[in-house]
Amino acid sequence: MTEKSSFRRKPESSFAVMDGGISTIRTMARPGTSKDIRVSVRLRCSPEQAYEALTSERGLLLCGLSRAKTDARSRGRFRMVWPRNAVHGDLEASGVFVDLDPGNKAAWLFDEKRSFGKVGMPALVNIFIEPCGRGARATLVHPGFPAGEDAGQAAFRSLWTELLDGLRSRFSGGRP
User: Fold this and answer.
1) Average of pLDDT values for 130-145?
2) Three-point CA angle 48, 49, 51, nearest 5°
3) What confidence tens digit (pLDDT) does each residue in 7-35 have?
4) Domain that holds residue 121
5) Is residue 110 part of a domain?
6) CB contact burial 18-42 (16+ within 10 A = b; e otherwise)
7) How far apart are CA 71 and CA 97, in angstroms?
């Protein structure tokens, strides 16, 4: 007699991330049930200059943040503050750098308890930098949002577009 197993694959699984004093419980959705925010911009600078702008206090300020503090090394902490505007009020975020490859990639792991006032937001943001013609291309990927568009996703898309537009302005001679 064949006995059917009562084991079913759960559609979601959870895991904990411990890095630099940040503990985050993440839920991994089945493939196709999550959505990534992707924003890309071409820059008139070298990949190394783009990397420096995205990982240094001075560079982030020139990209349009009102305040920034960075320790650009693995597990080094950062703090970013965006100025109040028509889309959002004062926004503050902090966390740790988790993947740094000068001229190629920077990754931020946000502390959910102290970032954006959003509990449950996806915490990891990757910025990939690559040569593009005489300049560089920076592509920001904020993965793991629930499938379907909502106001939270739209707000983050706007925030990341604003940051990368500031980066582009910084290298095109304009003011962020």
Assistant:
1) 94
2) 65
3) 333 333 333 343 333 333 333 445 567 88
4) 33-172
5) yes
6) ebeebebebeebeeeeebebebebe
7) 8
